[in-house]
């Protein structure tokens, strides 16, 4: 669909690029000629991904350890990248999420998700955007959202709220920063199974609602190159008039069936207890590998 020079001269930061969708998006950007920076909190994960993607694509990829819940950590990262040369693109991909009855969420549980998805994305956009404005550089920002920005979703309320806030930021800043030549768009993927998401959203292994491919009109999950191609298109030159849009890539899921967790209303308190234990075990394992945060 694209060639190895579609993104030549582009320098793109992918937050959360060490794993899952961020890693596969980075693979696509590199294969299209972009230089890529990825960030996250686990140095071992970032280093391994850089080695793998550099070997597979022959592209230039670098990592930064950064906790996007901390605005200072973001600003330090963006400053150190711009010292090597200005970015031309940003993909807001890092996120936190888990399924839980909303009544059982503590303030810290809510904040863990909001501070990553809403605040982290906003502060990253601000750190990159203000440098572009000062330097007179045009750029493309794409946020990785979810179709809950249109439907909402039970049992993942902090995520649905925070992603919707970034949808609103996308539309608002497309207007405010349009005169500077800065574009903001977003994508809203349907289910693309990843270890990180499935351990937090499908911890029983029994797909339902949002993680169920049988209710997708195309009767399958999304494939990583499909999402990577959309990201390449949104980072490439050629459709610069495209801004302020959120594009679903979900096989028609949200138009046909609840692409949400509404069906979890049938679970018992015991089921939820087991789910919480499974999610906490996954989170603890990831936490033990963190270099920051
Ligand atoms: C079609 C599908 C659409 C999918 C759309 C979106 C998908 C995604 O976004 S998937 C992304 C999945 N990846 C991640 O979540 C990676 C990052 N995750 C994390 O950092 C952790 O998993 C985290 C979210 C739990 C946060 O970790 P940390 O800040 O280290 O937090 P703690 O473990 O200390 O917990 C903070 C707070 O949260 C409460 N909590 C944790 N798990 C649960 C749970 N399952 N149910 C309810 N509450 C939970 C925890 O108890 C803490 O609160 P306090 O007890 O009050 O201290
Ligand atoms: N998988 C799916 O089906 C769908 C996913 N999405 C969206 O795609 C994106 C990626 O999800 P996915 O790949 O599935 O999940 P992952 O768990 O694999 O990715 C999350 C990434 O974010 C990073 N991250 C989390 N918190 C922070 C933080 N505080 N600072 C820096 N980095 C952080 C993690 O790295 P580390 O832990 O090392 O910090 C990890 O690399 C998310 O925005 C998600 O909402 C949207 C719709 C569907």
Number of DSSP-assigned strands? 7
Order of helices and strands: EHEHEHEHEHHEHHEHH
What's the CATH topology label? Answer: Rossmann fold
CATH class: Alpha Beta
Describe the structure.
- By secondary structure, this protein is an alpha/beta fold.
- The protein has one domain (11-287): 3-Layer(aba) Sandwich (Rossmann fold).
- It is 47% helix and 13% strand.
- It has helices spanning 20-31, 43-57, 71-84, 107-135, 148-151, 157-176, 195-201, 224-235, 253-256, 269-288; strands at residues 11-15, 35-40, 61-65, 89-92, 139-144, 182-189, 246-249.
- Helix 4 links the parallel strand 4 (89-92) and strand 5.
- The radius of gyration is 18 Å and the shape is globular.
- Bound molecules: ligand LGGBLMCM and NADPH dihydro-nicotinamide-adenine-dinucleotide phosphate.
- Ligand LGGBLMCM is lined by residues 95-98, 100, 104-106, 108-109, 112-113, 146, 159, 190-191, 196-197, 200-201, 210-211, 276, 279-280, 283, 287.
- InterPro entries: NAD(P)-bd_dom_sf (IPR036291), Peroxisomal_t2-enoyl-CoA_red (IPR052388), SDR_fam (IPR002347).
- Its main location: other.
- Pfam families: adh_short_C2.
